C-alpha cells in the first residue's frame, strides 16, 4: 500500500467514526479486536444496502423467495456440511509479537507489494507458488515461501515464525439448563446451511418449481484471529446469500448467468468499473465445479466482496445422508426425481459497506484565486444515502423554522430527512456533504412570499428554485428505488 492510498484509507476510517457510520465496539473499554458497531448513519446505510439486495434478489424475481433461519442449528448440521472437520485456515504465529496471521494472506500482501513496486514477474511467480501450495495443502511450503520472500511480522518486524498450522474457525458454546445435560452447539459460520435444511419446507409450502432460489440475510460468526483492514475481516459479520437450485447439467449455464447479473448489480451503485474484476478460484472446494470472486480494488489491493459458486449437489446430498430424510425434487418436465444442483451467490454486507464508503469518499479542494476552501463529501447513490434530504431554514427567526418544519413533516413520512438550523448555511451544506445527503432544501424569505425553496444538489453544488408544494414528488423521483433497480 502506497502512502497516498494508506492515507486515504485512514481518512475513510476516521471519517466513518467522526460522522457516526462505524465505531470500534466497546470502545470505552478499549474495544474488542475485529468487532465493530454501526452508528446512527452507518445503520441507515447498511439497512439501505440490505434493502437494495433484497429487492434485486427477491422482489424482482418470481422464482426467488426469502427466509430468515435461526443462528443456532442442530450440531449435526455442521458435521454434514464439513465445517466440524474441515473449516480451517492455515495460521502462523510470530514468536516475538505473539501475533497470529493467516499464512496465505501474508503471502498475498507480499504479492500486492511486488505489484505496487512494478515487480510483475516476482508477483506472478509468487502467486503461482502460493496456488500450488494451497492446492497441495502443503503447510511447510507456505512457511518456506514466507521465509524465502523475507516476509516480516507487521508488528515486530521480525521473521521469527512458528510452523504453519490449521485452526478451526467456528465459535462453540453450550446449550442446556445444566452442565451435565449441555450440548455443544455452534454459532453459524455461514448462513447457507439454514437455507439447505429448509429446502423441502420452502419448496413444498411455496409450491416452488426448479429452477428457484432461496435468499437470506443474516449474521454469521468466525473466529478470525487476524484483526486488520477495518471492517474487512470481522468475527461477527453479516452475509447476504442466495442458493439457486437447478436441474443437474444446467448448473454451469446458470453459474455464468449469475456472474454477469451480480457484477451488474455492483456497478449499478455507481462504482468505477475499473475497480472491479472477476478472480477465478485456482483451488476449488471439494464440492464445487466452478467458483469465482467479484473483487474490488480497495486501498489495500483487490479483495473479494462476493463469491459465486457452483456447489453441485453436495449440500443437499450431505444433509440427506446425515438426516436420513429424502431431499429430492420431482421434475414433471422430465418425469424424474433428483437432488438439485446449487448455484450460490454470497456477499459480505460489511465488505459491501466498505466498498461503498471507499467508492464515495472524496476530499475536494474548492479554492479559488480569492478564497481557500475545501470539503469532504460522500457521493452515495441518492437511493442508498442514509439521509435523503436536509431541510434548512436560512435563519432561526421570522417564521422560517415553522415553514421548514412544515416541509420536514411532509417528507419524513416517506424518507429519512434531517432538520438543521445551527451555523451559517455554508457550514450546514458542508455537514450534509460529509454525511452524503444528496439534496438540501433551503427555506428563505422568498419562500414565505411565493412558496418556493432552493434545492441544492450535493455532487454539482448547483441550486435551483422549486415549488415547495412539489417537493414530495421531486424527492421521491430523485431517490426512488427505480433509479437503482430499473436497469437491472
UniProtKB/TrEMBL annotation:
Coiled coil: none annotated. One of its GO terms (molecular function) is ATP binding. This is Glycine--tRNA ligase. Its EC number is 6.1.1.14. GO terms for biological process: diadenosine tetraphosphate biosynthetic process; glycyl-tRNA aminoacylation. Belongs to the class-II aminoacyl-tRNA synthetase family. GO terms for cellular component: cytoplasm; extracellular exosome; microvesicle. It comes from Parapedobacter indicus. Substrate binds at residues 102, 190, 237-241, 344-348.
Amino acid at each position: 500500500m502506497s502512502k497516498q492510498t494508506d492515507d486515504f484509507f485512514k481518512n475513510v476510517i476516521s471519517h466513518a467514526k467522526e460522522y457516526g457510520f462505524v465505531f470500534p465496539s466497546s470502545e470505552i473499554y478499549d474495544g474488542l479486536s475485529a468487532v465493530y458497531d454501526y452508528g446512527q448513519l452507518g445503520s441507515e446505510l447498511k439497512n439501505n444496502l440490505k434493502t437494495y439486495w433484497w429487492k434485486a434478489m427477491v422482489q424482482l424475481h418470481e422464482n426467488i423467495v426469502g427466509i430468515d433461519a435461526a443462528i443456532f442449528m442442530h450440531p449435526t448440521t455442521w458435521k454434514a456440511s464439513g465445517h466440524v472437520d474441515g473449516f480451517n485456515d492455515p495460521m502462523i504465529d510470530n514468536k516475538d509479537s505473539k501475533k497470529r496471521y493467516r499464512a496465505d494472506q501474508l503471502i498475498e500482501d507480499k504479492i500486492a507489494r511486488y505489484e505496487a513496486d512494478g515487480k510483475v514477474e516476482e508477483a506472478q511467480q509468487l502467486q503461482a507458488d502460493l496456488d500450488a501450495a494451497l492446492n497441495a495443502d502443503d503447510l511447510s511450503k507456505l512457511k518456506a515461501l514466507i521465509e524465502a520472500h523475507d516476509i516480516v511480522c507487521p508488528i515486530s518486524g521480525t521473521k521469527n515464525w512458528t510452523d504453519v498450522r490449521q485452526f478451526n474457525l467456528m465459535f462453540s458454546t453450550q446449550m442446556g439448563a445444566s452442565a451435565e445435560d449441555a450440548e455443544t452447539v455452534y454459532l453459524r459460520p455461514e448462513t447457507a446451511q439454514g437455507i439447505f435444511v429448509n429446502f423441502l419446507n420452502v419448496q413444498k409450502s411455496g409450491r416452488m418449481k426448479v429452477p428457484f432460489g432461496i435468499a437470506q440475510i443474516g449474521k454469521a460468526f468466525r473466529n478470525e484471529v487476524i484483526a486488520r483492514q477495518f471492517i474487512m475481516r470481522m468475527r461477527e459479520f453479516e452475509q447476504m446469500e442466495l442458493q439457486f437450485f437447478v436441474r443437474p447439467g444446467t448448473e454451469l449455464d446458470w453459474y455464468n448467468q449469475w456472474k454477469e447479473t451480480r457484477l451488474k448489480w455492483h456497478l449499478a451503485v455507481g462504482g468505477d468499473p475499473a475497480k472491479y474484476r472477476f478472480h477465478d478460484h485456482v483451488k476449488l472446494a471439494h464440492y464445487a465445479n466452478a467458483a469465482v470472486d467479484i473483487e474490488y480494488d480497495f486501498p489495500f489491493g483487490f479483495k473479494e466482496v462476493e463469491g459465486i459458486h457452483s456447489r453441485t449437489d453436495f449440500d443437499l446430498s450431505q444433509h440427506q445422508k446425515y438426516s436420513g430424510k429424502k431431499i429430492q425434487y420431482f421434475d414433471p418436465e422430465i418425469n424424474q426425481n433428483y437432488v438439485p444442483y446449487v448455484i450460490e451467490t454470497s456477499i459480505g454486507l460489511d465488505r459491501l459497506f466498505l466498498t461503498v464508503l471507499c467508492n464515495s469518499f472524496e476530499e475536494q479542494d474548492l479554492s479559488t484565486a480569492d478564497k481557500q476552501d475545501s470539503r469532504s463529501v460522500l457521493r452515495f447513490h441518492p437511493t442508498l444515502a442514509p439521509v435523503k434530504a436536509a431541510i434548512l431554514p436560512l435563519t432561526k427567526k421570522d417564521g422560517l423554522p415553522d415553514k421548514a418544519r412544515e416541509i420536514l413533516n411532509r417528507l419524513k413520512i416517506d424518507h429519512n430527512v434531517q432538520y438543521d438550523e445551527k451555523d451559517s448555511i455554508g457550514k450546514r451544506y458542508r455537514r450534509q456533504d460529509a454525511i452524503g445527503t444528496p439534496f438540501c432544501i433551503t427555506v428563505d424569505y422568498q419562500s414565505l412570499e411565493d412558496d418556493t425553496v432552493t434545492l441544492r444538489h450535493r455532487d454539482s453544488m448547483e441550486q435551483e428554485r422549486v415549488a415547495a408544494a412539489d417537493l414530495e414528488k421531486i424527492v421521491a423521483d430523485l431517490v426512488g428505488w427505480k433509479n437503482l433497480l430499473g436497469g437491472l
